[in-house]
Design a protein that fits this description.
Domain Photolyase/cryptochrome alpha/beta: 23-153
EC number: 4.1.99.3
Pfam families: DNA_photolyase
Radius of gyration: 23 Å
Largest sheet: 6 strands, mixed
Strand order of the largest sheet: 1-6-5-2-3-4
CATH class of the largest domain: Alpha Beta
Number of helices: 20
Low-confidence stretches: none
Bound molecules: flavin-adenine dinucleotide
Strand content: 5-15%
Protein name: Deoxyribodipyrimidine photo-lyase
CATH architecture of the largest domain: 3-Layer(aba) Sandwich
Helix content: 40-55%
Organism: Desulfonatronum thiosulfatophilum
Length: 461
């Protein structure tokens, strides 16, 4: 343990061959974009204090990233502006570098003569590649800290888990050890270098992303906004969380965009929910999603390099989908019809419009939405690529292990089991609009999110 940081949260990913450098400890912030409750930053601050050197926090802003648009970059940049201010008040340097990530990190380390690099954990391929490329080019210790999961991903399990039921006991048995409160951030021993304030306008101008996916204003980006959303959830929605499968009930936490950008720690959310006086059943249901399902998604992406492809599906699912590959489809759409919510299905169109207009689709509708893409495209491969593209482009919380796993669950039976065989789906679990109508008022949902010229029959698929 370093102070109160469990050593199992930290992995050495590059051991230096030469003599130690005297420069600052650098925390390359990537997935966990916050100052509070951040194990990677806490470890970096401790290391700086131990060595008697300054601490610098670095963020490298890639001009584009997967299918992120200005909606996502705007959210990220506003959150980072808050990070800069909070760090400045604590005498910790924050640098924003623009351009390709790997050379930006390497240049920064060389320019500052950095003595140590610490970064946060992310199971996605692109992030792993960045870390590998940086580590190959520098000769200083490089550490990775899992600041996102409560039980560090590599501690929970050394293999891809089959389902929630297999990972649940592995997580639960380690919670006493890892679900602890956070220590205070150590004061940096050396004064902050006099870095100029970040030019946030220049950062926006450097982007090469889709500017047509508009930013949304119903949630405030950043750590303060995240905490306000958590408080609102605890005070007004958590008590009713058992109605989480009703998209009209408005009981979800709306924390996924903040969790995705690391603007709030899941561990902090879990601690606050456990300490609240709300119904035990509601708290338990929420913690199952926040901890078990979320950490199961990281486990899937960490252990399965094909997390966003049909190749990543379990064998039974690949086999059954293959068997039904040539089944006739009553409806077949291309990307444009899906993207413009122009299918024959009123409920599907409403879900798509919810995502496009608000940046977030209700969790229950996401399952239905992805399953219909499987039914209404020519192949599971096409369904995967359309679902991922739309989710990553419009959902604030997209480009996340939860998204890739949720889509792979819906289309490819990941973490699920075989069901009754039927056309197109084979043994993949089926959903339809009639089933949704048995659970909630689909008409009300359609009305909320449908523009008047589109059809209103909720029973159309
Ligand atoms: C097809 C499909 C696509 C999805 N895409 C995404 C995505 O891009 N990003 C994303 O964060 N989640 C995704 N999910 C999972 C889930 O739907 C969302 O996390 C949830 O709806 C986010 O809203 P919330 O924070 O208000 O949820 P709440 O119900 O309040 O849940 C709180 C937190 O628990 C976690 N959680 C809840 N449900 C799940 C789940 N099924 N799997 C994993 N973690 C969960 C999330 O971190 C969430 O923020 C997807 C699910 C499916 C089926």
């Amino acid at each position: 343990m370093t102070r109160n940081i469990h050593s199992a949260r930290i992995r050495l990913i590059r051991e230096p061959s030469g003599r130690p450098q005297a420069g600052p400890v650098v925390y390359w912030m990537s997935r966990d974009q916050r100052v509070r409750d951040n194990w990677a930053l806490l470890f970096a601050a401790d290391q700086a204090a131990e060595r008697g050197v300054p601490l610098s926090v670095l963020f490298c802003l890639s001009p584009k990233f997967l299918d992120a648009a200005i909606r996502h970059y705007g959210f990220l940049l506003q959150g980072l502006a808050e990070v800069e201010n909070v760090l400045r008040a604590r005498q910790i340097a924050f640098a924003l570098r623009l351009g390709e990530v790997v050379p930006s990190v390497i240049d920064f380390l060389r320019e500052t003569n950095a003595g140590m690099l610490i970064t946060d954990f992310d199971p996605l391929r692109i992030k792993r590649q960045w870390k590998q490329d940086v580590s190959a080019e520098v000769d200083i210790p490089v550490f990775e800290v899992d600041a996102h999961n409560i039980v560090p991903c590599w501690e929970t399990s050394s293999k891809q888990e089959y389902a929630a039921r297999t990972i649940r006991p592995k997580i639960h048995r380690r919670l006493d050890e890892f679900l602890t409160d956070f220590p205070d951030l150590a004061h940096p021993p050396a004064a902050m270098q006099d870095l100029p304030p970040v030019d946030w306008q220049a950062a926006r101008s450097s982007l090469q992303v889709d500017m047509n996916v508009a930013e949304v204003d119903w949630l405030r980006p950043g750590e303060e906004g995240a905490r306000a959303m958590l408080r609102e959830f605890l005070d007004h929605r958590l008590e009713r969380y058992e109605q989480r499968n009703d998209p009209n009930a408005d009981v979800l936490s709306n924390l996924s965009p903040y969790l995705h950008f690391g603007q709030i720690s899941a561990q902090r959310v879990a601690l606050e929910v456990m300490n609240s006086n709300k119904s035990p059943a509601a708290r338990e249901a929420f913690l199952e999603e926040l901890i078990v399902r979320r950490e199961l998604a990281d486990n899937f992406c960490w252990h399965n390099k094909d997390y966003d492809r049909v190749d990543g599906f379990p064998d039974w699912a690949k086999k059954t989908l293959d068997k039904h590959r040539k089944d006739p489809r009553d409806h077949c759409y291309g990307l444009e019809a899906f993207e413009t919510a122009a299918t024959h299905g009123a409920l599907w169109n409403a879900a798509q419009q919810e995502m496009v207009s608000t940046g977030k689709m209700h969790g229950y509708m996401r399952m239905y939405w992805a399953k219909k893409i499987l039914e209404w495209t020519t192949s599971p491969e096409e369904a995967m690529s359309i679902a991922i593209l739309l989710n990553d482009k419009y959902s604030l919380d997209g480009r996340d292990p939860n998204g890739y796993t949720g889509i792979a669950w819906s289309i490819g039976g990941v973490h699920d089991r075989p069901w009754f065989e039927r056309p197109i789906f084979g043994q993949i679990r089926y959903m339809n609009a009639k089933g949704c109508a048995r659970k909630f008022d689909t008409r009300a949902y359609i009305k909320r999110f449908t523009t008047p010229e589109l059809p209103l029959d909720p029973h159309l698929q």
